[in-house]
Amino acid sequence: MNRPYLPPLWLRNGHIQSIYASLSRPRYRLNYQRERIDTPDNDFLDLDWSLCGENRSRDLIILSHGLEGHTRRNYITGMAGCLNKAGIDSLSWNYRGCSGEPNRQLRMYHNGVIDDLDLVVRHGIGAGYKNIFLIGFSLGGNLTLLYLGKTGKGLAKEIRGAVAFSVPCDLAGAAEEISKPKNAIYMRRFLKDLHTKVKAKQDLFPTKINDHGYGRIKNFKEFDDCYTAPIHGFKNAEDYWQKCSCLPWLDKIKLPCMMVNSLDDPFLSKSCYPVEIARQTKQLHLIRPRYGGHVGFVALNREKEYWSEAITKSFIRSTLDQHHLPDQPE
Description:
The protein is of the alpha/beta class and 330 residues long. The protein has helices at residues 14-23, 74-85, 114-126, 139-151, 171-178, 184-204, 220-232, 237-244, 275-280, 307-320, and strands spanning 33-38, 44-50, 59-64, 89-94, 131-137, 159-165, 257-260, 284-287. It has an 8-stranded mixed beta sheet, with helices on both faces. The longest helix has 21 residues, at 184-204. InterPro entries: AB_hydrolase_4_sf, AB_hydrolase_fold, ABHD4, Hydrolase_4. The active site is at residues 138, 265, 294.
């Protein structure tokens, strides 16, 4: 896909893009087939399959959602539906506690749960797929690229490539950016949703976690210091961010990978646009559209196909054909 992303005038604003894509897109109807798989620590992950036909394809996309998302988010179902039409099956997975039912263990999900992603990947391989592409959005994009970088040459041969959108690849920078006053509406929404998760954990583990003083938490640093870090074995928020940011691992990626971060994304700091790393890393193709917001990339067309979906389809086709990657829009 060689054309740049140029939305209508009224969508050339990062906040409008982000909100419109989240709230106004009609939901793509998929015939999901739910499957629950067990984890090694006596927990579970809920997976949603969407097949392109009666018989399984040779090709599969594995979709990882964003913070406080799930498999029925519009950006997940839209991407799955688009690739289903192109003859590719999809496997969307809900992180622990994100499928509508609290998970069993104290641990939740975060930017670095590559063990859970690996379990899902292995499950896809076990189903017989020969060509697997990983697609991640926001937190899921960081998780996907971290998985690829840290696994390196140990990746299964069936994994052919990856696409990541709106990636907070420097978690510290992104946390600072979203805590700014201009993003207060998003911050409040995230903290409200996360509070629901904390209260569910409190019901299960009242001696290990509680929401006392939660109302004083105003940003991700305070939330991660209080909950994410201690629950998952990190010293503090900074330690968590440093160990789970994909940025230091991008140059270790060994297969074709496309990162798409719009320049008007309200959540991303300047450090989330790794231009120099992309120049020096053959397999990392960085695209920085002028517009797109955070997981937006709205396109108003007869096919109801967003630009993010079209360019992903192009990337997968060109990678499978061992052809050139899509040209970077100006």
